[in-house]
Write a structure and sequence with these properties.
alpha+beta; globular; 10 strands; 5-stranded mixed beta sheet
Length: 187
């Protein structure tokens, strides 16, 4: 399993629309997911140890961000033929077991991950109310294991500031995670 870091934030890059099925049986678009003060788009998957290390903190932060007017959405783009533990039925079970407070969407064709430039799980894209990219950093200092309980909440603090004044921090530490598992035709 290769650990990758996404590139630095391209401030102002517009969010890209999508129309994807969720684990709840509904379809979701960008407009469905955004909040009045912004949007957090997260590329995650079920099997990645980096995602598993932070999932409880991510759920906590998304619950709090909703109260600040930030919508949150998670997208799973891995090749499920090669990684069956990421298949939609497993996505649905995981989302239900953990009580995801955000839609968990399946990008079967991998076009949304490609359009966003997602490279790993987790990969975070934080947008302001105008859907302009302001954050592409990590959740916190966690890696394959959770950071200490008192670790700085970098993603939460950045999105809180974006909700307040529309701008993300100038200094951002990239996320780290497993590579997106591309289908052979998309690699």
């Amino acid at each position: 399993m290769v650990a990758l870091n996404p590139p630095v934030c391209e401030f102002g890059r517009p969010a890209i629309d999508f129309d994807l099925p969720g684990t709840d049986g509904r379809r979701y678009t960008l407009a469905d997911c955004r909040g009045p003060n912004g949007l957090l788009v997260m590329f995650i998957c079920n099997h990645c140890p980096y995602v598993r290390a932070i999932i409880d903190r991510l759920i906590r932060d998304c619950r709090e961000l909703a109260g600040l007017g930030i919508g949150c959405v998670a997208i799973m783009s891995n090749d499920v033929a090669a990684y069956p533990e990421d298949a939609p039925e497993h996505m649905r079970r995981w989302a239900d077991e953990l009580g995801f407070p955000f839609p968990y969407l399946y990008d079967e064709e991998q076009t949304v991950a490609r359009a966003y430039g997602a490279v790993c799980t987790p990969d975070f894209f934080g947008y302001n109310a105008g859907l302009e990219l302001q954050y592409r950093g990590r959740l916190d200092a966690s890696g394959r294991n959770p950071a200490p309980a008192d670790a700085r909440r970098e993603l939460f603090e950045a999105l809180r500031d974006i909700a307040r004044d529309g701008r993300g921090p100038g200094e951002q530490t990239p996320s780290i995670g497993c590579s997106i598992k591309w289908k052979a035709e998309n690699a």
